Amino acid sequence: MISLNTAAAVATLPAEQQVSAAIAGKDELKQAAKRVRESKKKQRDESHDEPGAEATDPVKALEQRVAELTAENDTLRKQVAELRAQLGQ
């Protein structure tokens, strides 16, 4: 008997590969599932290594946050300058 996760991984393979793995037996089904998982992991790892991959939205969000913090910093600097001016009087 194979696990549900193994069967699900094998089910993502083309029909011919599923049939050949099933004919070869339980151990081959497990190996096929392992290859599928490794392939998916490799694809995920490669997509994280590529510049700009899945980074478009987070980059925009960070740029917006930097702009907000810069504006806040400018406001605080002005307030500090005003308070220093008042203390000097």
Any descriptors?
mainly alpha, 4 helices
- Helix percent band: over 70%
Overall form: rod-shaped
Main beta sheet, described? none
Average pLDDT value?
86
Compute the CA-based radius of gyration: 28 Å
- Total domain count: 2
Structural class: mainly alpha
Unreliable stretches (pLDDT < 50, length at least 5) are: none
Number of strands: 0
Task: Walk me through this protein's architecture.
The chain is mostly helical and 89 residues long. The protein folds into two domains: 1-51, no CATH class; 55-89. Helix content is 84%, strand content 0%. It has helices at residues 4-11, 15-24, 26-49, 56-88. The longest helix has 33 residues, at 56-88. The radius of gyration is 28 Å and the shape is rod-shaped. The protein starts with a helix and ends with a helix.
Furnish the topology, listing elements before pairings.
Blueprint lengths: L3 H8 L3 H10 L1 H24 L6 H33 L1
Quick rundown:
The protein has 89 residues and is mainly α. It has helices spanning 4-11, 15-24, 26-49, 56-88. Helices cover 84% and strands 0% of the residues.
